[in-house]
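Annotated sample (chain length 230).
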Amino acid sequence: VHGIHIDTEWRSDWKWDRVLPHISPLAGRYVLDVGCGSGYHLWRMVGEGARLAVGIDPSPLFLCQFEAIRHFAGNDQRAHLLPLGIQELPELRAFDTVFSMGVLYHRKSPIEHIEQLRNQLKDDGELVLETLVIDGGVNDVLMPTDRYGKMRNVWFIPSSAALKLWVERCGFTDVRIVDENMTSTDEQRRTDWMINESLSDYLDPANPALTVEGHPAPKRAVLIARKAKD
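Output written by the structure step:
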């Protein structure tokens, strides 16, 4: 922005590069990004030709950050951020593509979250779900007793196979895991813009394959699915 490199904690462009090759082209589509943060990916969606990219996130700070970037981006009206949680949206059934990236493990009821995502999609619309996973079979799910990576608000981390089953049970078809990736300290790290603790502080210094609590270190999966007709 005017020659200033905003070096955030997360390399969000890396996540986008992992997701983009697997999704339906966004050109002309109406898109919803649930838990969009400050809206970085909304601008990437607009860059791929989305007709309208709507993000929802309840944080007033994220809204202010998004609107500041919109100002310097020429007041582009193809992207909007609403300070809402998904539970505050009616069943719109209006979007061609719905993204939920980095949200599912923060929800006390992951099945309810998947159903809420489904209720925002048109028939045959596409779900793009990115979340933490563990290794294991179809019935393997981690529920931390207290914290995960020092986070108190982590509830359920399924295996990729269990995640696929959850999504299928919620009325989606063509469900597939298209990417799995260990989060590295190059992707999530401290910077001059983010001076608090980051991933290196959340991992066991003697064994970075584990969190400080002894859980498996963060591994993320990308799931793509299609909403079946009601």
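Annotation: The first helix runs from residue 12 to 19.
Annotation: The mean pLDDT is 97.
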